[in-house]
Amino acid sequence: MTQEQTRREVAIPRDYKPADDLLAHRVVLITGAAAGLGRGLALACAARGATVVLLDKDLKKLEAVYDEIEQAGYPQAALYPLNLEGVGPAEYLELASSLDREFGRLDVLIHNAAMLGELSPMYQYDPELWARTLHVNINAPFLLNHALLGLLQRSQQGRILFVSDRAGRRGRAFWGAYGVSKFGQEGIMETLADELGKRSPVRVMSVDPGVVNTALRRQCYPGEDAAALPQPERVAPLLLYPLGPEGDGLQGARLTVSENDGMDGTTS
Length: 268
Known about the structure:
The protein is α/β, with parallel strands linked by helices. The chain has 8 helices and 8 strands, in the order H-E-E-H-E-H-E-H-E-H-E-H-E-H-H-E. The protein has helices at about 5-10, 35-45, 60-70, 90-100, 125-150, 175-195, 215-220, 230-235, and strands at about 10, 25-30, 50-55, 80, 110, 160-165, 200-210, 255. Strands 1-8-7-6-5-2-3-4 form an 8-stranded parallel sheet, with helices on both faces. Strand 6, helix 6 (about 175-195) and strand 7 form a beta-alpha-beta unit. Helix 5 packs parallel to helix 6. The longest helix has 26 residues, at about 125-150.
């Protein structure tokens, strides 16, 4: 294995525990923050001192996460309802302007939102659903990066983290637009990381959290005992590993949570 390969494949230590002040005074934007792993990440970041910007299309669930953060006594979060399927460049520029006015910078951008589409052979895949799924999973992260990179470069320790999936690291039958789009996210991550290099204050990485009990997982495996799967609240703190000082040397890295590697399937 070459030095480059070693750098790009990183296992998050199973015993990693983020410090209580890991994200103190940092601004963290999380897409798909209303439920599942996004909600878990929002609570984990807020518990470590972050001001979390909660972005999702489901305002009611976003408000519930906001209330959880407030009731726990964490830094006050910010709500930003947005349907990634139905917006274009202008709406993302408006988001950037709003963050600039409110905070003057952005420290962390976590691309967590994902659309499954359908599990189907490619030759039977509905073309309209294919396009919608790729828009949410590829175009939206590109447009967010495009609009927000300037704010991230104002941070002394900027991070862009893609929540990935093993379906996007090795092609698998029937995973269709979801699997292809996860490959696309990995491509965006590696390309942007290579462009920014070591001189930029922004580090760009992806992380495969392994199997997590989420709505998308239950949609893929309806007969599975969801209660037996790792819960988002347990997995989310591990994903903070690249957001701290450990992430300084992980430009372009593919991270993995290895504790449930033996389990098959998607995670988001």
